[in-house]
Amino acid sequence: xxxxxxxxxxxxxxxxxxxxxxxxxxxxxxxxxxxxxxxxxxxxxxxxxxxxxxxxxxxxxxxxxxxxxxxxxxxxxxxxxxxxxxxxxxxxxxxxxxxxxxxxxxxxxxxxxxxxxxxxxxxxxxxxxxxxxxxxxxxxxxxxxxxxxxxxxxxxxxxxxxxxxxxxxxxxxxxxxxxxxxxxxxxxxxxxxxxxxxxxxxxxxxxxxxxxxxxxxxxxxxxxxxxxxxxxxxxxxxxxxxxxxxxxxxxxxxxxxxxxxxxxxxxxxxxxxxxxxxxxxxxxxxxxxxxxxxxxxxxxxxxxxxxxxxxxxxxxxxxxx
Length: 321
Fold this sequence. Notes:
- The mean pLDDT is 95.
- This protein has 321 residues and is of the alpha/beta class.
- The chain is built from eleven helices and twelve strands.
- Strands 3-2-1-4-5-6-10 form a seven-stranded parallel β-sheet, with helices on both faces. It has a three-stranded mixed β-sheet with strand order 11-8-12.
- β5, α6 (147-166) and β6 form a beta-alpha-beta unit.
- It starts with a strand and ends with a helix.
- It folds into two domains: 3-179 and 216-246, Rossmann fold (3-Layer(aba) Sandwich), CATH 3.40.50; 189-214 and 249-320, UDP-galactose 4-epimerase, domain 1.
- 46% of the residues are buried.
- The protein is globular, with a radius of gyration of 19 Å.
């Protein structure tokens, strides 16, 4: 990983990954429609050593030219429309960016030839699940309540198809509910809770959930390490069967996450308000992660309580400053 392209490199996960790659000595280019924010640059001074190329991930000719001009040997494809509510408002745009954008990245990498391509997929690939069992990589996609899941499944399957058809070194990471410092997508549970606590507003989490949903919450630092492990794996072993669940292997109720953040914030025992239709059978999704442990030597190292406590401390530090 000497010359690296990170699509979506100016986003939440992308900025963490770019900073890590720069620290590790790689020459990094971030492809994005936007630049880094002042907050991101303050958090990661290393971002100043990464080039930002303004461009659309769906532009096959532009991608191909960029890969050749920068002589990239490794690509991390993170660019996406990541928000479930927006996928319902703008389904075609979501499918276009997440599916066709991935097809363009795959084809550009095939035309140019690269040592490793890592595609960011999602646990949404598996659709809506309710059984209290970890989901293995061999599970088939299931129906979901939104187009985000469909778009990620399409991208995921295309990546596997390129690996098998062309023998490309393509790895797929299926992540679950990543959280951590710098996440400004306030439709997500953790940053939304922090925003409400900081403002003194009621802990109203809206109508997307009833609080009983149990999910796998992964710290962004663990996600970053997984990207690197998968890239090394496919560069050495190739892309066949290089699909990895990346999670903690544990599920936590959304109401418990919100309640924990409330207590950590000021000792208060606020009752989080979830106004979603009560479910007879709670939705449960957490990932079987033995494959990542056995083949990559990867395991999550940041427990949920420790990760949430880190965010609360940072919130108080900003307020004090």
